[in-house]
């Protein structure tokens, strides 16, 4: 307590910057810092005047980490350029072969995916074509029925509901037909047809 009082007195009487840190035997810490300053500034000033680095280890770890990340980033940038076929003069034969393999594998799976899409579109076209034929056939049957006309027997009544359903489907299909064909097949990419 006496030392703390002295520290305060020196601060006031001498207009000095005082920092005091005491650890007792129990490990309890007591500290005093002049109101005109703070501990960081005091420690920085101490470091400057003594040439001792107080927090070197921590800083070093951090800057090592930053360097490591920078290096990783640089090597990734280089790899990316190599994959694009740039700056490859520095590579040896084996490295070029590895690169070529990687690109070939990539191409194979790209082409597989492409033909998958084309195949899917072809199937879609076929399905629409089939449905169109089927609806035309149903429509034709319907026309034939209505042209026959005739007495309304029980048998015909059974079909009445079914015919209504057919009309409905044909109408649905016709309204769908107003949309551009390619757009119906591939709503995500309307112009995919032209590109193939």
Report the mean per-residue pLDDT as an integer: 81
Strand order of the largest sheet: 1-2
The strand count comes to 2
CATH topology of the largest domain, anyone?
Answer: SRF-like
Number of domains: 3
| Spatial gap, N to C terminus | 89 Å
SSE class:
mainly alpha
Classify the helix fraction into a percent range: over 70%
Tertiary shape? elongated
The residue ranges in which pLDDT falls below 50 over 5 or more consecutive positions are 179-187
Radius of gyration based on Cα positions: 42 Å
Going by CATH, the homologous superfamily of the largest domain would be: Transcription factor, MADS-box
Describe the 3D structure.
The protein is mainly alpha-helical and 196 residues long. It contains seven helices and two strands. It has helices at residues 2-14, 39-50, 56-83, 93-148, 154-177, 181-185, 192-195, and strands at residues 19-23, 29-33. A two-stranded antiparallel ribbon has the order 1-2. Helix 4 crosses helix 5. Residues 1-36 form the MADS-box domain. Residues 52-86 form a coiled coil.
Topology record:
Blueprint: H1 2-14, E1 19-23, E2 29-33, H2 39-50, H3 56-83, H4 93-148, H5 154-177, H6 181-185, H7 192-195
Antiparallel strand pairs: 1-2
Give keywords:
196 residues, mainly alpha, SRF-like, two-stranded antiparallel sheet, 5% strand, elongated
Short structural description:
By secondary structure, the chain is mainly α. The chain contains seven helices and two strands.
